[in-house]
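HOLO CASE FILE
Compound: adenosine-5'-diphosphate
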Amino acid sequence: MSNGPANVSRETTSRVPGMLDSGSFDADDFSRTPFGNISAADTPIAAEAQRASQVRQGGTVSIPKPKEQRVITVANQKGGVGKTTTTVNLAAALALQGMRVLVVDLDPQGNASTALGVPHHSGVPSSYELLIGECTAAEAIQQSPHNERLLCIPATIDLAGAEIELVSMVARENRLKSAIQEANLAGYDIDYVMIDCPPSLGLLTVNAMVAAKEVLIPIQCEYYALEGVGQLLRNIGLVQAHLNPELHVSTVVLTMYDGRTKLADQVAEEVRGHFGDAVLRSVIPRSVKVSEAPGYGMTVLDYDPGSRGAMSYLDAGREMASRSARQATAVPVADGESR
Ligand SMILES: Nc1ncnc2c1ncn2[C@@H]1O[C@H](COP(=O)(O)OP(=O)(O)O)[C@@H](O)[C@H]1O
Ligand SMILES: [Mg+2]
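Model generated. Tokens follow.
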């Protein structure tokens, strides 16, 4: 297996000690390097550092706005594959590049809320109150302290009971969709809504799939990567057939890629074989900075903007933005479950 502690730290091996450390680097440092004036074209390290510094200084790098709001559900019923990490870091990457992004935390664990630095103790208006109709979207939306364009509807532990409470409610599958429409009516001007799902295919995930047009599936570059994906695709098919004809898998992101292992490449190849063009070319490396960031209430883009993890999410965000929501390819049903 490649996820032992010895394999975790592959971070920023390209850094020049004391000079291009992204934590202290800004554009001014660029002309003051001991190597003289390095232009971005000269070395890949310089290009990366320049990009990190531009992004940190607030949106000098920007991407096109989508023609219409894109609502993306991040789903995979397997736990620990990088759903939350991908949701918050992609959201931050899009926000840093000029988009207005709303993250909806639909996992009672509230990890996305934690990573975005948003309070989510019991009693805070959250996705739970929103789903059961006890608060409005405007009451539940909070701004991330690190980026004014990054908004979050947090999840509290109360959400753990929602799957059961929702069962007997009217329009139980449509409640999140109505809430997002309500946020639009309240004038929030949101370009992207990203919904972080719990590791199950229950009513919370169904609500997320009804609210979205797109599904983003994070897949961990590990053994059994495609395990359960067949079941996920069948559920997407059911929601599409009965509740939301526009739903489709638009994006697959390979996460926790460890380039030193043969396995990671094999998994990447297999996933590309199944999902074709839906798989982003940008692959998210296994990176200790990515896993440390939530402990500080931050995304990796704020925690260490020059790190490889941050760069890979910026690239993934740009790639996602460059694809129209409509040009997604049909996705064959994976047979990974039988493995
Ligand atoms: N690229 C990565 N590099 C290192 N650790 C990662 C990476 N992506 C996710 N992790 C870690 O893996 C664990 C599971 O990720 P998470 O996003 O919470 O998965 P999920 O939401 O699917 O359960 C977390 O501890 C997270 O910090
Ligand atoms: Mg999660």
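CASE NOTES: Residues 308-322 form the longest helix (15 residues). The beta strands are 70-74, 101-105, 142-143, 150-153, 192-196, 214-220, 248-255.
CLOSED: yes
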